[in-house]
Input
Amino acid sequence: MTNIISLSDTLQIGGTNIVLIAGPCAVESAEQVYSVAKTMHALGLRVLRGGAFKPRTSPHTFQGLGLEGLKILRQAADEFGLLVISEALGVEQLPLVVEYSDIIQIGSRNMQHFPLLWAAGEQQKPVLLKRGFMSTIHEWLAAAEHIMSRGNQKVILCERGIRGFDPSTRNVLDVNAIAQIKETTPFPILADPSHATGRTDLVFAASRAALAAGADGLLVEVHPNPAAALSDGEQSLPLDSLPSFVDEMRRIASAMGRTLES
Output
């Protein structure tokens, strides 16, 4: 049976409801985040994502706004009554993420960054743990245990795609893993169709598959103008497509006997 984790006084994950987390890959400006938060609020969504510290493959690409980005996220979220999730790259960034976010994200590259896992385990806020793109399910669950060994039992897993051999997509969404986690562990699990596919045109289909496999929610990248995005624009949904995405996911949730949070 899946553990039910409270994200706030009025929002839980792991029960019959499905949580849709949306927002830009990277915080670029207050205007960008404000427009996304406003649209999310109008659609009944509750959790805003955004990267302030960006672990990019190349050091010559946008690395995030850091503390300024966290402040922008918090201000926009507070105005529209949203929760914030953002990633901590290391132990040194964790206090800032804890101060400005409601959920701590640990990314794929840091799944086995054990000092960070231990430090997150000493916090009381929920932790979203992404699967490493070259990690087995056993290794992923062991990483979750590192967090819980320090006292924090509020661990949410996120399947974000594993590395395959076909370059036509960024990664391979492991739907088997979603079903297996739901069947054999108590962890709530989300899917990240944006990173799993790396392609905007496949995000809808991958999201449908994830919810059908039993995912408790989705983590989706959204941008007002993906063509001008400083990070991952090729996999971000245009903001004006978010209403149709939410409508479709609500219908999939209903078919699975569940509801999308509102």
Q: What stands out?
A: The chain has a mean pLDDT of 95.
